[in-house]
Amino acid sequence: MKKFILILTVISLLLPSCTASDPVDTADTSKSDGTTASTDTVAEDTDVQTQDAAMESETDDEITEPETDDETTELETDDEITEPETEKPWEVPEAEYLTDISKYEKYIDPEDRDAYLILVNHNNRIDRNYVPDDLVDVVDTTEWRSTLQMRLYAAKALEAFLKEARAAGCKNVTAASCYRSYDRQEHIFNRYVDDKMKEDPSLTREEAEAIIHMDTAFPGESEHQTGLACDVENFNQTFGDTFEGKWLAKNAWKFGFILRFPEDKEEITKIVYEPWHFRYVGIYHASRMVDLDMCLEEYIEYLNN
Question: Do 192 and 212 contact (CB within 8 A), yes or no?
Fold first, then answer.
C-alpha cells in the first residue's frame, strides 16, 4: 500500500513538467523581458537581414575592369608615323651662254651663297658709317660718269652680265650708278626734294619728300650703299619695253642678279617700277626667286618662315 501511494506521488510530481513542455503559440511569443513581439516586427527584422546579406554579396563580388582591345592597341602602336614631306633642295637650272664665262663662274655662284642676301629698304635701314671693305672699280661704266664701284663679286658678275648682253645684241648697256655712300644718297635725295618744291611752290618740304620717296630712297634706305646694286643706262620706265630692257630682265638670274623693283610688286617694295635697277644676290637665290615669282622682300620672308 505504501508503495502504491509512493507511485502516485511520483506521478503527480511529473505532471507539471509535461505541461510546461507543450508547444508554444508563435502568434503570442514572449520575450525574455516580458514584452510581446508582433509579427510585423519580426518581418522587418527579416527584411533588414536580407538587404544586409545582399549588400555584403555585392561588396564581396570581384570588380571586373572593362576589357581592352589589345589587338587594336598594338596595331595603332605599330603603325608607322609618316613625316610631313619636306621641300626638295633647290637646284639651279642649267643656263646657256653665248660667251665664255668660265673665269666668272665663282663670282656668279659664290661659295657662301647667303653672304649677299641683304635686305635694305624703308623698314631695314643701313648704318650711316657702313662702307663695304671689298669695293672694286666697275669695268663697264657710262662715259659721262666717273669711275663707279661695286663689291668684288657683284662687280665681276656684272662684267659677265653686260658682256653677254652685248653678245646678244643689246646696245648702250653700261653701268650708270653703283655704290653710293650715305652722304651721297643724302645729297641726291635733298636735291630732288628741292627741285620738286621749285616745280611746285605750293608743296611743303614734307609733302615734297613724300613724293620723292616713291622713287628715291631716304639716306640709309638705299641698296646702293651695300655695293650690290647697279643702275644701267636709261633711267626711264619705257626702258622695260625695249629689247635691251626685256633681255636684261629675262637673263639677269644667269649672272646672279634680279630685277629689284618689278612692275607688279610696287605695293610690297614701296618703290615704283625701275626696269634699270639690278641687284646682285648670286645665281642660287636669283634663279629661285624667278621660279617663285618673288621680289626680295617676299623671298626673305619666305626663307624666314
Answer: yes
**Measured distance CA(231)–CA(172) in Å, rounded:** 13
**Given the C-alpha cell 527579416, which residue does it identify?**
46
- Residue 176: phi and psi, rounded to 5, are -110, -20
Task: Look at residues 234, 221, 150, 231 and name the one whose alpha carbon lies nearest to residue 186.
Answer: 221
Compute the distance between CA of residue 128 and CA of residue 176 in angstroms, rounded to an integer: 23
| β pairing state of 135-137 and 149-151 | antiparallel
Domain ranges of the chain: 127-178+223-305, 181-221
Residue owning grid cell 576589357? 67
Q: Is 81 helix (H, G, I), strand (E, B) or coil?
A: coil
How many beta carbons lie within 10 A of that of residue 158, not counting itself?
A: 27
Cell numbers for 76: 595603332
Say whether 231 sits in a helix, a strand or coil. strand
Residues 6+ apart with CB under 8 A from 87: none
Supply 167's cell numbers.
Answer: 653678245
Q: Which residues of the chain have pLDDT under 70?
A: 1-87
Q: Are 289 and 259 in contact (CB under 8 A)?
A: no
* pLDDT for res 285: 98
Angle ∠(169,170,176) on CA atoms, nearest 5: 155
Three-class SS of residue 239?
helix
Closest of 252, 226, 36, 40 to residue 150, by C-alpha: 226
Enter the CATH code of domain 127-178+223-305: 3.30.1380.10
Q: How far are the Cα atoms of 11, 106, 210, 289, 291 from residue 109, in angstroms, in the given order?
A: 141, 5, 38, 15, 17
Is residue 139 within 8 Å of residue 166, measured between CB atoms?
Answer: no
Q: pLDDT at position 86, please?
A: 61
Say which DSSP state 150 is in. Answer: E
Cα–Cα distance for residue pair 15/12, rounded to 1 Å: 5
